[in-house]
Structure formats: structure tokens, C-alpha cells
Amino acid sequence: MQPPYLTHPTPPGGWYTQPETAPGTAPEAVVAPEPAAAPVPAVARTVRAEQRGPVLHVELDSPGTGNAVTTAMLDELLAVLAEPDPTVRVIVLSGAGRDFCLGGDREELAAGLDEDPTGGGIRRYGDKARKVCEALTNSRAVTVARVQGRATGAGFALALACDLRAGADNAVFRLPELTLGLPVAWGGLLPRLINEVGAARVREIILTGRPVGAVEARELAVLQRVVPEQELDAAVAEWTRPIARRPEAALRVTKTLLASHAAANRMADASVLDSELMASVLAAAHYTRGLAARSPSN
After folding, report:
1. pTM (2 d.p.)
2. Rg (CA), the chain
3. At residue 234, does pLDDT exceed 70?
4. In angstroms, how far is the first alpha carbon of the chain from the final one?
């Protein structure tokens, strides 16, 4: 079945072939064909997926925007990650271009607030972000983040949602949300980060908004391996090859056990409120800017 954004091929002989008539018979009246429907424009894809044996490679493919995470990209990621082929043992998440991911698409978020100042669009976006990160964390396959360049905000969250994270020596992680007037509430990032890194260090990284380079990221367990960028694919393959040979049932149960023990360290998981928190803060800021713009100048 063809995707809905592809037009159907023209049948042999064209769409409007006039039927042949027997010799000596009057041809039937030719009925004017209905106007052809306008072709459906192709939808720009922002995620590329390719399965190579038991390994599924998923690439954020919008390098012109720094792989900024849009609603469309989240939809495409969900379509790929929600129910992968049962033969897949490993999912590798990467980003095209110089950077892994520069975060959420701020232009889209701003446009969503203009359309719905109550933040309804932001809530829907945030809910999808949480589902994508949960799909990476809860996948029966082992998920591997391949990080080069910058992993900012949402990019940081996507990488951290993976089981294993390999980074190039030029990888830089940053959470600039406070600088941008946002809460750190994207995809369940905060509880994951505290669980992996520790509350004191996470507090300092978030409140200062400073960048975390590859070497420090490895020390903090944000990355488990750091190599020169030209060796990044080989480093990822050193993980994927043995994991892909593991029995599926044992691999699935082990992942479930690891996730269960990690969750036991949390008194409560407030990440379900991420979309509400982000929508509330952005909607309040949008409303305040609107009031300021309407007030008479002194």
C-alpha cells in the first residue's frame, strides 16, 4: 500500500484511452473526462528509518534546522518507534548534519500560542514528546543514541531516553530552558537526568545553563563512550553487533528489569505533567507580552 502522500501511477495507455470500435459501427459518444484531481503534494519527511538485519537505524533528518523537533517529526518518530518489526534487537538514533539536535522548534511553538493562547497546542506537542521518549526507553529493543555536535534541550532528552549513548569528542549537551523562559519539562527529561547523573549536579547544570562537553558528559554518565567523530559509527557497531545476537526473550526481560529498578529510585514521576507545565508557562508569558503590547506607553 502506498503512503497517502504519493500520487498513484498512471495505468498503461494513460488515464483516458478511447475504446476501440468494431468496423462499420458508429463510435459511441465520447464523454468528456472529469477534470483530473490535483496531485497531493509530497509531505516533507524529517525522519529516515532503515532496517539492516536486526538493527533499525532511525535518523533525525532535518539538518537545515539543526534537526529541530517539530510536531511532524514527533509523529514520524512515533510511527517508527511505536511498533518496530519484532525482529529488531537494536534501534540506533542519530541526527543528520553537524548536530544531533538543537531542541524544539521555537517558531512552531510560538505559532501554536498565537493560534491557541491557552496553550492547547503546546500540551499536545508535549504529550507527543513524552510518548516518543517513553517509546525509546520502553522499547523491547536496546536503544542507542549516536551523538555528534550539539544536543540541546529536546535533543538532550532524546539522547538520554536511550539505553546506551555514544558521543563524538565534539558532542556538547546543554539545557538553556531557563534562559529562554521555559521549565525543564520535555519528554520526561528531568527525572531521567536526576536518576542517571544525581540531583546536585543536575541542579547546577540547569540553573546555570552551561554547556557540558563530551569528556564531562562521560564522567556524568550522560555518555557511556566518547570517541573521535570519525570513529563514532565503529563505536556504535561494537555495541550493536553483540546485542543483536542476544536471544529476544532474554533481552526483553533484562530491559524490563533494568527499567523497573531505575523506576524504583523515584518517589514519584512527575514527567506526566511536563506538557501542562510547559503550556502553562508559555501561555502565561504570551499573555503578559500581549498585555504589555496593548498598554499605552508612558
Report:
1. 0.77
2. 25
3. yes
4. 64
